[in-house]
Amino acid sequence: MTASETYQNPFIPEPVRIVHQRDLIKDHRFFQIRHIDMQRAMSFQYMPGQFIMLSLPGVGEAPFCIASTPSRPGILELGIRKVGKVTEALYQKVDNDVIFMRGPYGNCFKIDQMKHKDIVMVAGGLGVMPLRSILYYVLDNRDDFDRFFFLYGARSPDMMLFKEEFLQLAKRRDIECLYAVEKVGDEKDWAHHTGMVTALFKDLPELDPLKTNAVICGPPVMYKFVIQELLKLKIPKNQIQMTLERRMKCGIGKCGHCVLENLYTCIDGPVFTYWDTLHFRELI
User: Fold this and answer.
1) Between 20 and 30 A from 12 (CA), which of 144, 148, 255, 270?
2) What are phi and psi of 149, to 5 degrees?
């Protein structure tokens, strides 16, 4: 079997190398990985919202959203929370170690629908990981999109993922960043909002709902209240997109772990519109 045939087989993992890793906050780590084959690394294609499967022989396999943007090829970036045996084993790896990957899988954010329109992006906690992909995709293709609003909420400043990166991002003139923490704690220099992420909506300017798209990702409890705010803005239900994870295991719709009626999260998702969730309420 040739290398190209191996790459096209969705069941066969490809070897990838850990290029760099660093801790973000407790039990949350940032990984950069790259295909061992450099030609494959540069030609690997994906879109914001898709995910990959990482595996370690003798340990297991798990799905992870892609936190990097396809507009910067060569390196894949992931944010991984230590929560089970696969992630615990990943945390034992060091730079230059080889692991294995399948993918990309799933659908993606409806980029074409968002072009030349305003975007409201709302992230909570670890939910910023998949949204980081579309965040930098939009910034790398800035002329294709209109106003861009990035709302991010965390429990406290020291629980904010990519804190320094996002604080620097707030200095740009082509994006409006609104950050909120529930408690400031010991950080006396916190210059942003204190409260829930939904309180940031009052700081948004007037929006034309028909020319506005929203994207959401965060803890399950967040969706209900964020969607309420978006509906108050009269943004159409099919222009509200959210990325969800639901017990995904195989990534290709064979195991049935993520099935919901006639939907497979790993194939029909993980990106859904709010309109989709009205028909399949168990999605959120």
Assistant:
1) 270
2) -120, 125
